[in-house]
Specification:
Blueprint lengths: L2 H7 L6 H10 L5 E2 H7 L5 H13 L3 E4 L7 E4 L7 E5 L5 E4 L2 H13 L10 E4 L2 H6 L1
Parallel strand pairs: 4-6
Antiparallel strand pairs: 1-3, 2-3, 4-5
Length: about 130
Amino acid sequence: MNIENILKKNQNRVTPERIAIFDYIKTKHLFTYNDILDNFKSLWRASIFRTINLFLDLSIIRKIDIWESAISYELNDENHHHEHMKCNICNSIITFHSNDICKKIFEEAKNMWFMIKSHNIWIIGTCKNCLLNN
């Protein structure tokens, strides 16, 4: 994913701040607004907030709303698409590949003349370790 090309193609400015934030999120599986804020103390809060919203609008990142306290995000990489399961006891996050599920979702959407912009699936339950230790 080339952030400069995506920004230019969508008529957005390529700034050092946007490049730095993108380079940072490439190294994370899940991240929050506060993670970026903590890592980029010299940037204005509003700049970080606007960059996150821009990246969401351009589908560079996707929102993962599985925490009660904070919204998480992840890079929206078509080549490594996956979904999440969250343990309701230890709060661990388990990822799983969802090619068959996604194919079915897109087929259903197409049949209903619905154009999907983005999607995510998250499942809450109990992980193997917690099942075995309780």
